[in-house]
Amino acid sequence: MRQSNMLIPTLREVPKEAEIKSHQLLLKAGYIRKLASGVYNFLPLGKRVLRKVEKIIREEMDRAGAQEVQMPTIQPAEIWEATGRWYTMGGELMRLKDRHDRPFALGATHEEVVTTLVKDEVTSYKKLPFTLYQIQNKFRDEQRPRFGLLRGREFLMKDAYSFHDSFESLDETYQALYDAYSRIFDRLNLNYRSVIADSGAMGGKDTHEFMVLSEVGEDIIAYSNSSDYAANIEMAPVVDQGEKPDVQPKEMEKASTPNAKTMQEVADYLGHALADGMKAIMFKVDGRFVLVIVRGDHEVNDVKLKNLYNADIVELATEEETRGIVGAGFGSLGPVGLPDTVEVVADYAVKYLVNATCGANEDGYHYINVQPERDFQVSHYADLRFIQEGDPSPDGQGTIEFAKGIEVGHIFKLGTLYAEKLGAEFLDHNGKSQPFIMGCYGIGVSRALAAVVEQFGDEDGMNWPKEVRPFDFHLLNLNTKNDEQVELADQLYKQLQDDGYDVLYDDRKERPGVKFNDSDLIGIPYRFVVGKGASEGYIEFKNRQTGEQEDVKTSELTQFIEQLMGA
């Protein structure tokens, strides 16, 4: 492709809206352009890289035995209502109505659609197992779109769904797709980890996220410093290994704590360690009020709370709701003397507290010398807090450290969740109706592209790994007024194309400095420059990834490239 004919609108300044490297470089190098908040055009260079990422995904999905399909983007509301997600997905689900006032959703995901499809087409266990996948734009009305392609309202995704007659079959396909994902991210040259994760709005159990390590990641990975254990911080279990201190319990007393509302303020005012306090937070769990107690230096993990109750919706109670129940605001909330309508659950660490402090359910007052089970009853103890750095690793090897990550892939064992809600059944080998057992497997295609830029971009621009480069070579003619250089550059352009290579040929009437800057910005790994050496039969080669440069005889170019591409 001649660069003079290609739409590559490079920029010299970083757009103010771009906060992170991938967003900055993709805009500067002319790969994408913003249409609206969280919505982007992919320009020719961006589309080329996107196709390369898709190609890798298709090859590995096909290798794993999956079959590609294409499902509708517009989905009728009734199938979402049947699973309950029309209501539980809230504002993220983009909704619209047709001219007959019938409600639809723009596809955020396709569990409902694919389950309905298979329900109508497959009736016997003899057709199982199989896996269907597609690569398609998805839509989610993010409350705060940010970071360019990493969190948008429209994005490209590969989603796959497997159907089985047994959980053993699901386990086999899950492992096959896990391995396929590992090969995909290996081929993208990404530094990633597979971590234990939460299924969230997707439902189901047993799930892994594939996280690209990056300081701009919005997820935190908890990993062992002595083993390969890794989990999303929301899912990392905390080892219950506490013991009660050898101190004498005292009588509970009420203490005035004016203007002290946070745990740290209360601890400072009363003169005790933060860990000697009890933090109380009121939640609504599927509409039911639950008070969660954790140690003062710990944080409540609402994902663990949701999993404890197997709940659909877990949300914080409002201060107005809390006052209506206990008569006090958040800063003075505690478990002593609560009405029977509120269930109290506590993290494991709470049962080891002696002479602790908690809110007195009266503004400006706290109780001191509180003993769990003596002064209040706990419905049950559970792992309800976020793991912290320095905690023992759940696998018993080493301690926990944190790293940030970008989620690029997520796989789930859905079980029969969607099949049961949508009435999708097959006849087993005994002729009995059974719900399909399902798995779900997603990759953020456009997000993976941005993650590659985060890891490989540098101060000069893109630095694409070979498998996703937009072109094989960047050929630059430095002087379009020099007939000899023009003739050689044209000749090399034709030769490289005839040899089957994809070439971006910079034939623009621009200064050499502009061409070099744009070449570094675009980031094609291998560059050939036709310059002053043309009269002597030499061209300059530069490896964008290593920075190495050397002169190459045009008569030896074919051999040079064969060695280069075989490396």
From TrEMBL:
Record EC number: 6.1.1.15
Q: Which InterPro entries match?
A: aa-tRNA-synt_IIb, aa-tRNA-synth_II, aa-tRNA-synth_II/BPL/LPL, Anticodon-bd, Anticodon-bd_dom_sf, Pro-tRNA-ligase_IIa, Pro-tRNA-synth_IIa_bac-type, Pro-tRNA-Synthase_IIa_type1
Q: Is ATP-binding found in the keyword set?
A: yes
Gene Ontology MF term list:
aminoacyl-tRNA deacylase activity; ATP binding; catalytic activity, acting on a protein; proline-tRNA ligase activity; transferase activity
| GO CC term, one of those recorded | cytosol
Question: Which reaction is this enzyme known to catalyze?
Answer: tRNA(Pro) + L-proline + ATP = L-prolyl-tRNA(Pro) + AMP + diphosphate
EC class of the enzyme, as a word = ligase
Q: Does the keyword Membrane apply?
A: no
Could you tell me the superkingdom of the organism this chain comes from? Bacteria
Localisation: Cytoplasm
What's the record's remark on domains? Answer: Consists of three domains: the N-terminal catalytic domain, the editing domain and the C-terminal anticodon-binding domain.
Per UniProt, subunit arrangement is: Homodimer.
Q: Which NCBIfam families match?
A: PRK09194.1 (NF006625), proS_fam_II (TIGR00409)
Annotated function: Catalyzes the attachment of proline to tRNA(Pro) in a two-step reaction: proline is first activated by ATP to form Pro-AMP and then transferred to the acceptor end of tRNA(Pro). As ProRS can inadvertently accommodate and process non-cognate amino acids such as alanine and cysteine, to avoid such errors it has two additional distinct editing activities against alanine. One activity is designated as 'pretransfer' editing and involves the tRNA(Pro)-independent hydrolysis of activated Ala-AMP.
Protein family: Belongs to the class-II aminoacyl-tRNA synthetase family. ProS type 1 subfamily.
Q: What is this protein called?
A: Proline--tRNA ligase
Which source organism? Answer: Allobacillus salarius
